[in-house]
Amino acid sequence: MLIRIGDRYTVFRHELLENGLSLLVCHEMDVLVIGINHKTAPVEIREKMSFSGEELGRSLRKVLEHPGFTEDMILSTCNRVEIYVTTQDPERDIVALKNFLAEYHGVSLDEFEKSLYVHLGSGAIRHIFRVASSLDSMVVGEPQILGQIKEAHNIAARHNTLGIILNKLLHKSFHVAKRVRTETRIGSSAVSISYAAVELAKKIFGTLEGKAVMLLGAGEMAELAAKHLVAAGAQRVAVVSRTYQRAVDLAMDFNGEAVEFDGFHERLEGVDIVISSTGAPHYIVHPENVLGVIRARKNKPMFFIDIAVPRDIDPRVNEIENVYLYDIDDLQEVVDANRDRRAREARRAEEIVEEEVLTFCNWYTSLDLVPTIVSLKEKFEEIRKRELSKALSSLARITEKERESLEALTSAIVKKILHDPITFLKSPDLNTNTTEYVDAVRKLFRLDAEGGGRAKRKGGDEGS
Amino acid sequence: MNIWFFKITVVLYLLGTLKYLLFIILLRELLAKIGLLSLFAGFFLHAIAFILRYLEAGHTPITNLHESLSFFAWTIIGVYLAFYWRYRIKVLGPFIATLALILMIPAMVLPKEILPLAPVLRSYWLPIHVVFAFLGNAFFALAFCTGIMYILQEHQVKSKHIGAISRRLPSLGMLDEINYRALTFGFPLLTIGIITGSLWAQYAWGSYWSWDPKETWSLITWCLYAALLHQRLTVGWRGRKAAIMAILGFFAILFTFLGVNLLLPGLHAYSNW
């Protein structure tokens, strides 16, 4: 399956289509993610596979019981279940994780195996960046997922299951999500009817602080819109219903006031936003009514949201100055336009993700043992040569023989100094912990001379 | 020396305008920041230019068209910066900056020499009258810009095509509020400008009011704004009608300021330019 040269994976892009693996394998240590989400599995499977919050710590430790795993994180939300680990032997570890999932949840592998996706190396990095930026969400651009990843990170950090790679990967993914949020407008427009109504209300009134809302009739969507309006600052909710008791019940939810259906016209004057969703077969609000109301209000603007079908409010109401009327189709149009826009913004977000995958891969390639040993040796050799030539230039008369022995002396010193650390790094007992030592060595000897400073600064940004 | 500062000011206003226009297209916060900083720096240097010119001339340097245009632009930028400090509306920047730049370009082309002051203008009333009149005008310029923005935004919301323009503009409520605020500041200032002018006229020409074109048009402008303010306060005029009135009012100001000088001869035409 994987092409190997010697004992290492080659830098080679694989598209292993038969099991959906997309790989850019180039490391001794790779990030591996295995999981299911709302696109690959129905809710019946997702709920069986999910990890509950309390037992997450135990689950995290359980994964680490398998040989070969040194760090892990589990992300379990209602839309996805994913396990992140680092691996040195993907073939073995993919199987191990699958078995872990089956055993842990007491579900047979056949039941969920075809819903599983596996990403390795840069594929896994790209995956978490996309998930964190909400590009992989059910509603692209919804921001909850970032909070959920942060929570998963906290739990893993509390249980000490994060190593240097996953920790850095997660912090980087927060950074990517932040970049996507600020550089694209992926989450800036409403993609549901009720949010679109709130957005429009803000367009009209500016702030909703202190605005009065009237619910004419009560449907689920009208209630939802009213809830969003209240959350955005609206106050004083009046509920009108043909059955008075229903109005009273609903008014309790909003800390509002119930109004008799027959009297609602008189109350319109004090209302800024009307959400109408009665079952009336004909219009119940006419331009004449609104004209009178708006005059009494001294032209203070009004916003009518008519989500009833058939409509409750005569469309001509929209022609009145300082009055705005949106029916369900108008709102749907706004939502559709916003969806298109989000899709366009998502493409820009993908570019940002690609860029970040590349930078992360650069860092993470540097954690490989062999290149580190090579650059360590190069650095020492360079110092030796520089210092030697300085010394030689100050020694006036010196024979060829003396020169050679100086060369030999300095080389021997360097070699002796480096012998122990290199033997240590290569020692087999280190095996799973290599990356942390490699990272330490790179920092101790400043092997990322020009990249080091920048990486440090970026780290600071992410922390804040 | 003052000309040198003036020219740098033009460059800064140009930079501010370009950055702000780019900002409104690309919506990058950084561009708006640079735009604001450019205007701020421009405003500062512009002030220095005026002080230097005042010292060189020995009288308030608002006596010819170059100076008036330049001073008008300066007050507009100043009023914008004050409103920005209060309302933090970045999208107003491109409109205001463009307007100021449009005033600065002819000011740059027009003759800039300092000429001896006509005897009739030698008076303490000169700075008082002009500063009040122009400050009032600057507030009306702000009302004009928010009026245009209101019309654009209102059209989008009313016609239910919430497009790119709508997303970039502030809410109708906010625009109407700024429009109203600008009016409540501008109107008293214009009124004081006209009264001080009239007192000065009495002092200089022996008559409070002589119906020369500038005076007549000032009165027309004043009546327009008075009507708007009255309607707002009593009937609750707001929104589109108020925005249209603010736009018309500003055209009246421009005509009073420029049209009268260029087209109609009268007492206020002191220099050819």
Q: What are the main properties of this structure?
A:
heterodimer, A: 464 residues, alpha/beta, 6-stranded parallel beta sheet, 4-stranded antiparallel beta sheet, elongated, disordered C terminus, B: mainly alpha, globular
Task: Explain what the structure shows.
The complex is a heterodimer of chains A (464) and B (273). Mean pLDDT of chain A is 84; it is low at 1-26 and 450-464. Chain A has helices at 43-49, 56-64, 90-105, 109-113, 122-132, 144-158, 164-183, 193-205, 220-231, 244-253, 264-267, 287-296, 328-365, 369-394, 400-426, 434-444, 449-463; strands at residues 4-5, 8-9, 12-16, 21-25, 30-37, 72-76, 80-87, 117-120, 212-216, 235-241, 257-260, 273-276, 302-306, 323-327. Chain A contains 17 helices and 14 strands. Chain B is mostly helical and 273 residues long. Chain B contains nine helices and no strands. Chain B has helices at residues 2-26, 29-57, 65-87, 92-109, 125-159, 164-168, 172-205, 213-234, 239-263. Chain B is globular. The A-B interface holds A 185, 188-189, 200, 202-207, 297-301, 318, 321-322, 324, 326, 330, 333-334, 337 and B 27, 153, 157-158, 160, 162-163, 166-167, 170-174, 177, 235-241.
Strand content of chain B: under 5%
- Helicity level of chain B: over 70%
- Amount of beta strand of chain A: 5-15%
Q: If helices are DSSP runs of H or I spanning 4 or more residues, what is the number of helices of chain B?
A: 9
Mean pLDDT of chain A equals: 84
Mean pLDDT of chain B: 89
Q: Nearest-angstrom radius of gyration of chain A?
A: 32 Å
Radius of gyration of chain B: 19 Å
How is the biggest beta sheet of chain B arranged? none
Number of strands of chain A: 14
Largest sheet of chain A: 6 strands, parallel
What is the first-to-last residue Cα distance of chain A?
42 Å
Number of strands of chain B: 0
